[in-house]
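Report of the visiting student (M.T.), summer placement. My assignment was to run the structure pipeline on a short list of targets and document each run. The first record concerns Ribosomal RNA small subunit methyltransferase I.
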Amino acid sequence: MKGILYIMATPIGNMEDITLRALRILGEVDLLLAEDTRVTGKLLARHNISVKMKSYHQRSADSVATEIIALLNEGKALALVTDAGTPGVADPGNELIARVIKEAPQVAIEPIPGASSLTSALSVCGFPTNAFVFMGFLPHKKGRQTQLNHIQEEERTVVLFESPHRIGKLLAELEERAPDRPLAIFREITKMHESHYRGTVKELHAQFTKGDMTQKGEYVVILGPSPKPIRAVAES
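After the run finished, the structure tokens were exported:
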């Protein structure tokens, strides 16, 4: 019997945003791999599910992945979840998936779709989404200017993730390159204090500077198609 690894989406805020299929499988797997077992434990408790859990995250040792692959080779059923959203999307889960594909090709890897801040934000941004570029979190230092220059030259809709600690810096950098580009920012999607902001890059940076957008929370930043070509900024 071959093992199976479920890549399972969990709520990004609202606890009700989980599929019936996901709930069933959570109760059936031999082991649940969680980014933070305390966070996932709250979800399990909410739905009265009891399952053995093991921590797997960005800082997990290689030996943890080796142990996971051994269990899959034994025919075990495992599920991988993050604290919120879909594993493998701007998430270290893709490293485990790549390793399983390489070292245990007989193991089935099955997606269990559900909540995603990426697709949720795109669905209400109002920009063309028949083609878009997802760039996740930009590098903090090396390569950041190059990535920003790519963004300003990109004609399609561009999606970024940003933390509350760096959103101001990102908006300043975007204004330097594309002040008139249409922008939509979404904070705390599906949570109690969900907020949507729309305008040009310049307008939303000014709004942030005045303190209107400085609340805590994760941000999805979506740039609409560029209205006109703009100059590149040299890599520093």
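The chain has eight helices and ten strands. The mean pLDDT is 92. I thank the supervising group for their guidance throughout the placement.
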